[in-house]
C-alpha cells in the first residue's frame, strides 16, 4: 500500500510532464519515489512490496509492446544482510 507524508505535497516536488508515485517513510524523511512521464500508462504493483523494505514497483504498459516492471529499492546504509535475502525472495 502506498503511503504519503502529507507534510510534503506532490505539488512541492512536481516535475512538469511527469506523475510522481511515492511511498513515504514517515514525517522525519525517507521513502522512495518514481517519476513517470504522464503520457505513459502504468500501474502500481503492490504485490511487490514487503513491510521491512522500502520498495516501489510499477508495471509500465506501452502500445505495441510487452509490459515491463520497474522496481526501486532503497537500502539504508545500516541495514542488515538479511534485507538482501528478503529482497531476493520478493523479486523471485
How does this model look, in words?
With 92 residues, this protein is mainly beta. The mean pLDDT is 86. Helix content is 11%, strand content 40%. Strands 3-4-5 form a three-stranded antiparallel beta sheet, with no helix packed on it. Strands 1-2 form a two-stranded antiparallel ribbon. The protein has one helix at 82-91, and strands at 18-26, 29-37, 41-44, 54-61, 68-74. 4% of the residues are buried. The protein is flat.
Largest sheet: 3 strands, antiparallel
Order of helices and strands: EEEEEH
Distance between the termini: 20 Å
Structural class: mainly beta
Q: Residue-averaged pLDDT, rounded?
A: 86
Percent of residues in helices: 10-25%
Lay out the secondary structure.
Elements: E1 18-26, E2 29-37, E3 41-44, E4 54-61, E5 68-74, H1 82-91
Antiparallel strand pairs: 1-2, 3-4, 4-5
Give the key terms.
mainly beta; 11% helix; 92 residues; single chain
Quick synopsis:
This protein is mainly beta. The protein contains 1 helix and 5 strands, in the order βββββα.
